[in-house]
From TrEMBL, chain A:
It is a multi-pass membrane protein. Belongs to the ABC-3 integral membrane protein family. Pfam families: ABC-3. This is Manganese/zinc/iron transport system permease protein. The chain crosses the membrane at residues 6-26, 35-53, 59-77, 89-109, 144-162, 174-198, 204-223, 230-249, 255-275.
From TrEMBL, chain B:
It is found in: Cell membrane. The keyword Transport applies. One of its GO terms (biological process) is transmembrane transport. This is Manganese/zinc/iron transport system permease protein. The keyword RNA-binding does not apply. It comes from Pontibacter mucosus. The chain crosses the membrane at residues 15-38, 43-63, 69-89, 101-119, 146-164, 184-203, 209-225, 232-250, 262-284.
TrEMBL record, chain C:
This is Manganese/zinc/iron transport system ATP-binding protein. SUPFAM superfamilies: P-loop containing nucleoside triphosphate hydrolases. PROSITE patterns: ABC_TRANSPORTER_1, ABC_TRANSPORTER_2. It comes from Pontibacter mucosus. CDD domains: ABC_Metallic_Cations (cd03235). It comes from the Bacteria. Belongs to the ABC transporter superfamily. Keywords: ATP-binding, Nucleotide-binding, Transport. Residues 10-242 form the ABC transporter domain. GO terms for molecular function: ATP binding; ATP hydrolysis activity. It holds the Pfam family ABC_tran.
Length: 292, 427, 262
């Protein structure tokens, strides 16, 4: 049963991360995703200090806000202080992450978080924290419920905003010209990434979220030319990695999150080498532009 | 306080070593970071830093020892491999650079974590301390390790100084460097190697996770203080060194605290203060400049106004009351009063019983503003074909900014004109 | 030579546009007649793209205003279409030709609504007009430059707008595409649409456009093609830079000066 809960948790994390990751990599914002995933840490610690728990709505909102603040900060440094774009990302997230780690050390007694958890989560402990109703009925691990709600929200967001997200990602100038607000969709996407990062934090840690955001999406991007298929494939790749990663971790007795990240990397490598349309080892005749 | 004195007297040999070590580690990565920053590849360093972890773990697994040179070698190999992988992925597929960096960073780190946890669970007693690579260990750097890493740091600094000219050219203008016969490929390789080495030694101070800050942040901060590369290197090194010392101090006074995050916090604060307050480029100094412009505009507008009033009467020796001034132009009363008293202090106007009057100096300056205004109006109508009823607004701004050289140039181009487009005389 | 028209479709009044406080367009004042093919012509860096972007309110104006159909732009967004420069998007994007053309309907659909059959038919029809109906399911990464341009054009057509802004639609396309595009633009003009095209080939300008705007940081001329494309005005457009103007622009940027006093 434990294995089931762990794999389910991993799959839920993989689902929401992969979906959002598709937009991030197509917008060339993979490193912003990386930055957000680091920068939510102080938010998580502060929310934890205030509310005393990890699976709470204030936690999701508080830490999620910090993620959005990160994108504002990066933009602010870049636009108003004119810091070079990549340096602005680098300075912002390392700074916030350092604050987070220091807070954890200072409040070590009051915060049930440690540095290992920050790095690679505690997915193995997920089944231990059960949600038990007053009647004594066990409804399964709390984290699974939180993640399920977040995953549903993300899917809803993508389904409802599909065409706007698609257009603002592909051609923001045209979107603006026909009256679709690019900044509304940009910031809502960043909010979604932040909330996902916070929700995934307990299971895979702040840093390995990046692997879940980027690798399945990149794998899918090499396998298809259809955006909807890309979304589906990335989710499949993410779930597959969760299953395979779990057994890999059991086999070599290591971190589950680390193992899942490793598998997402292997998946990408396979797609990179053997993708039917774009694999570098497939000597199939490349489709050339047809002269008209 | 006692601890402070104890630490900074450097009486304890151990403290001396640790301080020298941290300073060297932080300095070398700051210097190399300047070049990667200028080449707009700052975040690549982040990927290398994370990619070092599996190398360290593999080296330990294969050798079974924590010999610094062996771990360093492992770190070096995977660090290098990560850079090659990023380049390979971006050049051979449609994956863009940012995705490749994030991908390599997280997957290599994931592998590292998997290996590290596997080692920890294996019960091998020798492994303890490997996790220090994650967040740094400035204070516990002793003996053999310290000597090894310091040597590499010194080597890095020396190499950078030796190849200063070539590396500068590479960052400044790669194409030009190629045409004048620099071995650009080789130099890129050298810079890559330097980056990997800087990361490998730098993580001793701040750890894998925050290493990016040691490369990026001092360089980004230094960039705000100077436009000269040599000075930027020195400043970045100083900022790095300062944060290194602070880190060593923190480790000394609070052994439970992770050193890396403190170093990063300090260096980040320096950077953010630089972004805000560095003279010239800083955000605040730019805001101040904007405010100074506002004052300048107000003062010159007042002088211009008094000059206009004088021009109407053909007499510049009359005084005008505040009321008359306010009637002429809608400026908030408070601003006018403040502006007038400032102008008086500067000697451009005098207060008379009847109100305010231009001094000779003030008349001359007012005249110049009016002249520039009319010259610019003429320039816009003649060279930009703007209608004469559209040029006034533009000239209202430009009259305050034209330098004496540009004024001369305008006069020449317009052929020393007498009348502006509205047939007003150009004084 | 700046000719103003009665009842213009586009009215630009005293427009100054700056990048980083440095004005790239100074005090533009022009009006464009309805139902015409307008060419915006000038050397590199003259601010041609900037002008049409500012007309669509994609860039903030330092001063002045733009009115389209005698209304502020926000009120007439659904009557405006835009064909961006081809290089402005990533053609590796996982989308089919049809996906891109269907985007033409997004503006009218509003939030949460999916394209209906009528929108799909309109998209197909637009593809037909540009001669790409056979490519509907082709991935956009597999298109040639000319085909990419046609797809962008089809997207704009599917929108069925009244005024079209096109940024360099003839850049880097083959002869066949160029002829096809100009034919299409002429048909659009016959239907009473206004098309504003950024163009940099002087040779074809007389033939293609009935109204020409000559631009080089400032408006040099605006009027019927045959009156504007004269040796004298072209020399003014392409001839020596206005050094004083450039220097003042630099000063504004360096000194952090506001574009307008207040």
């Amino acid at each position: 049963m434990n294995a089931f809960w762990i794999i389910l948790t991993g799959s839920l994390v993989a689902t929401c991360c992969s979906l959002l990751g598709c937009y991030l990599i197509l917008r060339r914002m993979a490193m912003v995703g990386d930055a957000i995933s680091h920068a939510v840490l102080p938010g998580i610690v502060i929310a934890f200090l205030l509310t005393g728990s990890r699976d709470s709505v204030p936690m999701l909102i508080g830490a999620g806000l910090l993620g959005v603040l990160t994108t504002f900060l990066i933009e602010f440094f870049h636009r108003y202080a004119r810091v070079q774009a990549d340096a602005s990302i680098g300075v912002t997230f390392t700074w916030l992450f350092a604050i987070g780690i220091i807070l954890i050390s200072v409040y070590a007694g009051q915060v049930d978080l440690d540095q290992d958890c920050v790095l690679y989560g505690e997915i193995a402990y997920v089944p231990l924290d059960l949600w038990i109703t007053e009647e004594g009925l066990s409804l399964g691990p709390r984290t699974v419920w939180t993640l399920a709600v977040v995953t549903l929200l993300i899917i809803l967001y993508i389904v409802l905003g599909y065409k706007e997200l698609f257009l603002t990602t592909f051609d923001p100038a045209y979107a603006a010209a026909i009256g679709i607000s690019t900044s509304v969709w940009y910031y809502s996407l960043m909010t979604a990434v932040s909330i996902t990062t916070v929700a995934s934090f307990e299971s895979v840690g702040a840093i390995l979220v990046v692997a879940f955001l980027v690798a399945p999406a990149a794998t899918a991007y090499l396998l298809t030319d259809n955006f909807k298929t890309m979304l589906l494939l990335s989710v499949l790749a993410g779930i597959l990695a969760s299953v395979a990663g779990y057994y890999l971790a059991v086999w070599i007795d290591g971190s589950i999150a680390g193992a899942i990240a490793t598998v997402t990397g292997i998946e990408f490598m396979l797609a990179f080498l053997f993708s039917p349309s774009r694999g570098i080892l497939i000597r199939k005749k490349q489709l050339q532009p047809v002269q008209h | 306080m006692n601890e402070f004195i104890e630490f900074f007297s450097f009486a304890d040999a151990n403290i001396r070593f640790v301080t020298v070590g941290s300073v060297l580690l932080a300095t070398s990565s700051a210097v190399v970071g300047c070049f990667t920053l200028l080449r707009k590849r700052a975040l690549v360093g982040d990927a290398v830093a994370h990619a070092v972890l599996p190398g360290v773990c593999l080296a330990f697994m294969l050798s079974g020892t924590k010999n610094p040179f062996i771990l360093l070698l492992g770190a070096f190999v995977t660090g290098w491999l990560s850079l090659i992988t990023i380049d390979f992925i971006t050049s051979r597929s449609r994956i863009k650079e940012d995705t490749a960096i994030a991908l390599v960073l997280s997957v290599f780190f994931g592998i590292g974590i998997l290996l590290l946890t596997a080692i920890q669970h294996s019960g091998n007693a020798a492994q303890s301390g490997l996790d220090k690579f994650l967040f740094g260990k400035a204070a516990s750097l002793v003996g053999e390790d310290l000597i090894a890493f310091s040597m590499v740091a010194v080597l890095l600094l020396v190499t950078t100084i030796l190849f200063y000219k070539e590396l500068a050219m590479l960052c400044f203008d790669k194409a030009y460097a190629k045409t004048i016969g620099y071995p650009v490929r080789g130099l890129e390789l050298l810079l890559t190697t330097l980056t990997v080495f800087a990361v490998v030694v730098g993580i001793q101070a701040v750890g894998v996770v925050l290493m990016a800050a040691m490369l990026i942040t001092p360089a980004a901060a230094a960039r705000f203080w100077t436009d000269k590369l040599s000075l930027m290197l020195v400043l970045a090194a100083l900022i790095g060194a300062f944060s290194g010392v602070s880190g060593a101090y923190v480790s000394y006074t609070a052994p439970a605290m992770p050193t890396g995050p403190w170093i990063v916090l300090i260096v980040s604060m320096i950077a953010i203060l630089s972004f805000a307050f560095a003279p010239g480029k800083g955000w605040v100094s730019r805001l101040l400049r904007q405010r100074r412009n506002k004052t300048l505009i107000l003062e010159e507008n007042l002088l211009k106004l008094l000059y206009h009033l004088g021009e109407e009467k053909q007499d510049f020796q009359t005084s005008y009351s505040l009321q008359q001034i306010l009637e002429k132009r809608a400026i908030p009363k408070k601003q006018v009063s403040a502006g007038l008293s400032k102008l008086r202090k500067q000697g451009y106007i005098e207060k008379t019983p009847a109100g305010w009057q231009l001094t000779l100096q003030g008349q001359r300056r007012g005249e110049r503003v009016v002249r520039l205004h009319r010259l610019w109006e003429l320039y816009l109508t003649q060279y930009l074909q703007l209608a004469s009823d559209h040029v006034h607004e533009d000239a209202e701004t430009i009259e305050h900014i034209i330098t004496p050289e540009l004024e001369q140039r305008l006069m020449e181009e317009l052929g020393y004109p007498v009348l502006d487009p509205h047939s007003a005389r150009i004084p | 030579m700046i000719i103003q028209v009665e009842n213009p479709v586009v009215e630009v009044h005293d427009l100054t546009v700056s990048y980083d406080r440095k004005p790239v367009l100074w005090g533009i004042d022009l009006t464009l007649p309805a139902g015409s093919l307008v060419g915006v012509i000038g050397p590199n860096g003259a601010g041609k793209s900037t002008l049409i972007k500012a007309m669509m309110d994609l860039l903030p104006a330092g001063s002045g205003y733009v009115r389209i159909f005698d209304k502020p732009i926000a009120e007439v967004r659904n009557r405006i279409s835009y064909v961006p420069q081809r290089e402005s998007v990533d053609w590796d994007f996982p989308a089919s030709v049809f996906d891109v053309v269907l985007m033409g309907s997004y503006g009218k659909l509003g939030l949460f609504k999916r394209p209906r059959q009528a929108d799909k038919d309109a998209a197909m029809e637009a593809l037909q007009k540009v001669g790409m109906q056979g490519f509907a399911n082709r991935q956009i990464s597999q298109l040639s430059g000319g085909q990419q341009q046609r797809v962008f054009l089809a997207r704009a057509l599917a929108q069925n707008a009244d005024i079209y802004f096109m940024d360099e639609p003839f850049a880097g396309v083959d002869i066949a595409t160029e002829t096809a595009i100009i034919e299409l633009l002429r048909t659009m003009r016959e239907q009473g649409k206004t098309v504003i095209v950024v163009h940099h080939d002087l040779q074809s300008a007389t033939e293609y456009f009935d109204w020409v705007v000559l631009l080089n940081m400032r408006l040099v001329a605006s009027g019927p093609a045959e009156q504007v494309l004269t040796q004298h005005l072209l020399e003014q457009t392409y001839g020596g830079k206005l050094t004083v103007l450039t220097k003042v622009g630099e000063l504004l940027r360096k000194q952090e000066f506001p574009a307008r006093e207040s």
